[in-house]
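Figure 6 in text form: structure in, sequence out.
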C-alpha cells in the first residue's frame, strides 16, 4: 500500500507543476476560437467558403457600397468608382473555392494557429492549393486567401484571391491557353 500512496503523491506534485502550463496552453489555443474542427475525422463542420460569400453577397447587395474598382489586363489599367449591381457574380470566383463540401482530410493538411486556419493541398492535382482564413478575436472573418490552380490539356490557370472584410478584394489570374499567348489580369475592388 505504501508504493500506491507514494505514486499518488508524486503524480499530484507533477500535476501541480504542469497545471499552469496546461491552462496557459489551453488559453492560447482557444484565444481566437477558430470554428474549424481540430480532429482528423471527415467533417462537414469546417468553414464553408460558399456559405460565407453567399452571405457576404447578400449583405453587400443590401449595403450597396461604392467601390473603387481597378482592372489591369496585361499591363493596361482602368480604374472606376462604381456600385456593383450583382455581388453574387462579383464574388463568384471566391465562392467557387469551397472545399467544405465532401471534405476529405487525407487531401489537405490543416493548421490552426492563433486566429488563422490554413488548408494546404497534399496533392498538386487539387484545384484549391491553399485556403487561409484569418479571424479576429470575435471569430469574425478578417481575411480569406485562396491559391487556385487548374491544369488540363487546353490551358493552365493560376489564381490568387484575397478578400479583406469591408476593405478590399483582389483577384490575380494568370492563364496560359494552348496555342495562344499567356495573359494575366488583376482585379482590385476597394470599399469606399
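Output sequence:
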Amino acid at each position: 500500500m505504501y508504493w500506491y500512496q507514494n505514486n499518488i503523491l508524486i503524480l499530484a506534485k507533477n500535476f501541480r507543476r504542469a497545471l499552469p502550463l496546461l491552462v496557459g496552453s489551453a488559453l492560447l489555443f482557444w484565444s481566437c476560437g477558430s470554428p474549424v474542427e481540430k480532429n482528423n475525422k471527415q467533417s462537414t463542420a469546417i468553414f464553408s467558403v460558399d456559405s460565407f460569400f453567399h452571405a457576404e453577397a447578400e449583405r453587400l447587395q443590401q449595403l450597396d457600397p461604392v467601390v473603387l474598382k481597378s482592372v489591369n489586363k496585361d499591363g493596361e489599367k482602368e480604374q472606376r468608382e462604381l456600385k456593383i449591381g450583382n455581388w453574387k457574380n462579383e464574388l463568384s470566383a471566391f465562392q467557387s473555392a469551397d472545399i467544405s463540401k465532401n471534405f476529405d482530410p487525407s487531401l489537405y493538411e490543416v493548421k490552426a494557429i492563433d486566429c488563422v486556419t490554413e488548408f494546404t493541398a497534399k496533392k498538386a492535382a487539387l484545384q484549391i492549393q491553399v485556403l487561409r482564413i484569418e479571424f479576429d478575436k470575435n471569430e469574425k472573418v478578417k481575411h480569406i486567401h485562396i491559391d487556385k490552380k487548374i491544369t488540363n490539356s487546353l490551358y493552365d490557370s493560376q489564381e490568387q484571391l484575397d478578400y479583406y472584410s469591408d476593405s478590399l478584394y483582389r483577384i490575380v489570374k494568370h492563364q496560359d491557353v494552348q496555342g495562344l499567348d499567356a495573359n494575366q489580369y488583376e482585379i482590385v475592388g476597394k470599399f469606399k
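Caption detail: The first strand starts at residue 66 and ends at 73.
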